[in-house]
Amino acid sequence: MNKNKTMLSLALGAAFPWWALPALAQDAQGAAAADEAAERSRSLGVVTVTGGPPSSLPTQIPTTIESMTREEIETRINATDSEDALKYLPSLLVRKRYIGDYNHAILSTRASGTGNSARSAVYADGILLSNYLGNGISNGTNYAPRWGLVTPEEIERVDVMYGPFSAAYPGNSAGAVVDYVTRKPTQFEAHVKAGYSSQPNDLYNTNETFNSWQTSASLGSRSGDWSWWINLNRTDSQGQPQTFTTATVASGTPGRGGTPVVGFVPGLNTTNTPWYILGTGTQYHTLQDHAKIKLAYDISPTVTASYTLGYWQNDAEGRPATFLSNSAGRPVYTGAINILGRSFTLGPTAFPLTNDEQTHYMHGLSVKSNTKGEWDWEVAASLYDYATDIQRAPTVAPPLAEFGGAGTVQDQGGTTGWNTLAAKGTWRPQGISGAHIVDFGAARAAYKLGILKTNAIGNWINGPSGTLVSNVGGNTETIAAWAQDSWSFAPNWKAVLGLRAEDWQASNGFTATAANYLAYASRSESDLSPKGALAYQLTPDTVLKGSIGRAVRYPTVGELYGATTGGALSFINDPFLKPEKSWTAEFSAEKDLGNGIARATLFHETTEDALFNQLIPNTSITRVTNIERVRTNGFELAYTGQDVWMRGLDLGGSLTFADSKTVANALNPASVGKWQPRVPRWRSTVFATYKPDARWAFTAAARYSGKQYSTLDNSDVNGFAYFGASRYFTVDLRVRYQIDKQWSAAFGIDNANNYQYWNFHPYPQRTYTAELRWDL
User: Fold this and answer.
1) Mean per-residue pLDDT for 227-243?
2) Of the four listed, 19, 110, 428, 735, which is most buried by Cβ atoms within 10 Å?
């Protein structure tokens, strides 16, 4: 091993002490000819994928792009939902609380926490899955990406571009752009899969096993100019309790008032204040159905039209459990109680029940050319429709609430959704100095939000809507034009320059309660977002590259209008919120080690007018506000290698450091100099897969995240409590066996070390998974 490799080995060993520098193997070009799986090679920092469908990401931009192929997902990951494909990629975390988590599974990136869903962009075959009707979880609803519109069995590959470095994407790409590339059959194929998961859970006074079942089937083929794909999936999932009914000790009144109870669990809350945990608030049983139909037709040898129809249906019941019982051993849900000489009053919704019913549709239509000549083009449109979206909750206490009684109905069906329209072109001019690839386009994205909350007539379970509790809604629209030029202007050099122009408008905004109605005037903003990247091939196996980009993330409809001061909603709105504006930059060095790729990246982000929920001084009001400045500096180390040390052993890992702090915040000076919520200073992933032969694959993987906070002033010093955000270290295991050409089986354990960790809600404890699959 030469001196350079020795130094690199020492550097990687310091960053990743659990493995050392892998040995040199064949180059990527030779491997591509020997293997049908998608391979990666580097040329000026550009990801080139062969043996699989092309990525929709702009891979000609020399910036950080990471990928996970279908083969890698099947081998390494106990994937029960599409977001699991991101589990071991650098600097990413999806706040998935249980299998089928449909409302809180938000993506976190290098400089954005799990409360900022609007700062990343998630697509499936270029169709928007990110929900920009709101940001995070607030306002009585949720804005997680619509992960349920893609199943793990559909995924051919998932690609991630870190940062807002492409002019083709809106400012929501500040954190990352994720695109799922799903299967496009070239011949007849069929797949059937059955999976089972089991989670023994022991937390507070809950000691129960929660099980989930999943079944899926897929068919696809190509005949002449036509190709088609059908995927069906059903998930029946029991999640662990997510919320808890609590009372601080100090809030009780000393004395003998109230019914004496037992069963409470003493503890400390996030500020280390003594409290009692009285029971669970929400434990979901969710039943989900997914259907996907994809059709493609080759109009000519170079022009293809495609249509996608996605269907997602969800029925979920949230059921609480009280820990409290009286002297007769009967459960206590409401009324005056007494705990150790202090009296407390439990309201009728102290242990809340919920019933959710959703039916959503996704449509995508595109026509594009693929000549590889001087000109190519694409026209694409998509629509996401909340056909049915109802959340019901009682205002009476259990156990009577389980059979009916008064309650509320929150309805978004038919009034909520989004649509997009885009036209793109690629020009590869001839006869101009250097090699150019010019991409350009225009796009429109429109969002409509309507949340009507009423009192149920008759009973909360199936009663129709009655008198008004609250009503909020509005529209936003962004029209954009963009262009970028990838220019190989000299040997070993490449530059990319881009510019995105955007015009944003908010309109038809209103908030209403039974007592008042407010309508808001329309607003508009216009911005320019420049982009730039430069790459230099230092040696045949080493590339240096730098990227910089501005991102403007406009307020969502939910942030502007999606709250009232009446009803059960705890936020009030500010229709004059400013867009948040970020400058992001990174500098990377990548080295091709022959049998793997090592990368070191420095990154920086400064965000002006960042949008966060915070308490308004001298009030009890929490709302979305602008924070003057948040700044993040950090580095990321990443490595993936194949046939390391021995044939069949694949290794990979990453290490991320982020110093992310609030720099200026006039509303809350106590937050200045404190860590950005839910962005840990350190995080890491590592995996090892050993394939001794063509049948067996054994994988062990680990994930680590350091200390983090949920509040802007970092007052939540105890992360290991309900409402807290804790550090964690988890180990996952997976064994896959190819029984014969058609049949395969897998067994896995997620969180094998049974680490109890939190991100406001408790994450799953040790979970066993098993699956059986048949492929034709």
Assistant:
1) 96
2) 110
